[in-house]
TrEMBL record:
It is an enzyme of class 3 (hydrolase). This is Glucanase. It catalyses: Hydrolysis of (1->4)-beta-D-glucosidic linkages in cellulose and cellotetraose, releasing cellobiose from the non-reducing ends of the chains. PANTHER family: 1,4-BETA-D-GLUCAN CELLOBIOHYDROLASE B, GLYCOSIDE HYDROLASE FAMILY 7 PROTEIN.
Length: 455
């Protein structure tokens, strides 16, 4: 996730958010089949489920249906301070299909962009649960590969269908923070390298201190604290652009930040996490004919995405040294594109050498290297990372960092500025939410296992 305060992008239009577990709506997790492989053509299906992030959920008083949070304001009587608010308020179960446009079918998950029921909901974020249905599945992917199919044919400019990993607590922080009674069963404990400050509850406390409503999103805002952790963006994409991006932090595991630690605004490169990451975006790296409608990787059709996490000794005990990408479409294995930037060596995968060369060629600040690079990303996978899938629009930067020219105040001819073919206004949230309300993304056929076993 690239822009500062990027999670302002999620439009929380269903009044939600909490730390106690409510009982007014039964929480039933949609089932999703995944496969664990041991060798080529030897994969075993596993029954899992998904859970909706707590920030989307209805938040009400524990003893009634009175909202604790309405629009972008907290109820001061229920929430006079962070701890009391967490004790007074409960997040409730979700109607996944009818309220949030989230459906599963066997090994397939579809996320609809806008869903209109009793209220309007925009976007969603879900996590994969383990077999116990109450904790997040944690993936340890060093010397492993992770593969999935994605259909983004209904995902235009300005939207992002994302699949990624973050270093959340398996129980959503329930054991570490006594005021969090809901835990991963209700999707608590989110964190990423943007250190998002729009998360309503962090470390079991309401993020109400310094809360300021968003100027562009009537249902979102930011508080004093953010929530940080290592993040591996395996897939951020729409029909017109895609990026794979590791981000790292100087801390291990979910960590609450404040002030300079969060890296907000002018302090973007002074925080504890690398917000820019080291991205491999084929268009940005000089190949404008590789991925898109009718191109080598044809985004009008479903495509299989293979990501391999190689180590320096080809063992799970080694240090993460390379992230490789392959595609499979219509029975054909497609090698990743190669960089084509003047003055930059040729690369087709993410290594520390690639990251350093890319940062130098584009004139970008290299916090990825200073905060530990691929080795630190490997440390996070060693601990285990939760799988996230989402669909969202961007109230902060219009998703231009993914599919258009960005930043907008420098010439598009400068190396690294052009990231996709979309226009400067294509990601305006008001336009996207009205004109592309029926957009969706489908992830399916998730597989993981040793290198070469999943495709």
């Amino acid at each position: 996730m690239f822009p500062a305060a990027v999670l302002l992008a999620f439009s929380f239009l269903a009044t939600a958010y909490a730390q106690q577990a409510g009982t007014l709506t039964t929480e039933t997790h949609p089932r999703l089949t995944v496969s664990q492989c041991t060798s080529a053509n030897n994969c075993q299906q596993q029954q899992r489920s998904i859970v909706l992030d707590s920030n989307w959920r209805w938040l009400h008083a524990t003893s009634s249906s009175t909202n604790c949070y309405t629009g972008n304001s907290w109820d001061e009587s229920l929430c006079p301070d962070p701890v009391t608010c967490a004790q007074n308020c409960a997040l409730d179960g979700a109607d996944y299909a009818n309220t949030y446009g989230i459906t599963t079918n066997g090994n397939s998950l579809t996320l609809k962009f806008v869903t209109q029921s009793a209220q309007k909901n925009v976007g969603s974020r879900v996590y994969l649960l383990s077999s116990d249905d109450t904790t997040y599945e944690l993936f340890q992917l060093k010397n492993q590969e992770f593969t999935f199919d994605v259909d983004m044919s209904n995902l235009p400019c300005g939207l992002n269908g994302a699949l990624y990993f973050v270093e959340m607590d398996a129980d959503g922080g329930k054991s570490r923070f006594p005021n969090n009674k809901a835990g991963s069963k209700y999707g608590t404990g989110y964190c990423d390298t943007q250190c998002p400050q729009d998360i309503k509850f962090i470390n079991g406390e309401a993020n109400i201190l310094g809360w300021t409503g968003s100027a562009s999103d009537p249902n979102s805002g930011t508080g004093q604290y953010g929530t940080c952790c290592n993040e591996m963006d395996v897939w951020e994409a729409n029909m017109n652009g895609a990026a794979v991006t590791p981000h790292v932090c100087s801390v291990q595991g979910q960590t609450r930040c404040s002030g300079t630690q969060c890296g907000e605004g002018d302090e973007r490169y002074d925080g504890i996490c690398d917000k820019d990451g080291c991205d491999f975006n084929s268009w940005r790296l000089g190949n404008e004919t590789f991925l898109g409608p009718g191109l080598t990787v044809d985004t009008r059709q479903k495509v299989t995405v293979v990501t391999q996490f190689l180590t320096n000794n080809n063992q799970t005990s080694g240090s993460l040294s390379e992230i490789r990408r392959l595609y499979v479409q219509n029975g054909k294995v497609i090698a990743n594109s190669k960089t084509n930037i003047p003055g930059m060596a040729t690369f087709d995968s993410i290594t520390d050498d690639f990251c350093n060369a890319q940062k130098e060629a584009f004139g970008d600040t290299n916090t990825f290297e200073s905060l530990g690079g691929l080795a630190q990303m490997g440390n996070a996978f060693q601990q285990g990372m939760a799988l996230v899938m989402s669909i969202w629009d961007d109230h902060e930067a219009g998703m231009l960092w993914l599919d258009a020219d960005y930043p907008t105040d420098v010439p598009a001819t400068n190396p690294g500025v052009s990231r996709g073919p979309c226009s400067a206004t294509s990601g305006d949230p008001t336009t996207v939410e009205s004109q592309s309300a029926s957009a969706s993304v489908t992830f399916s056929n998730i597989k993981f296992g040793p290198i070469g076993s999943t495709y």
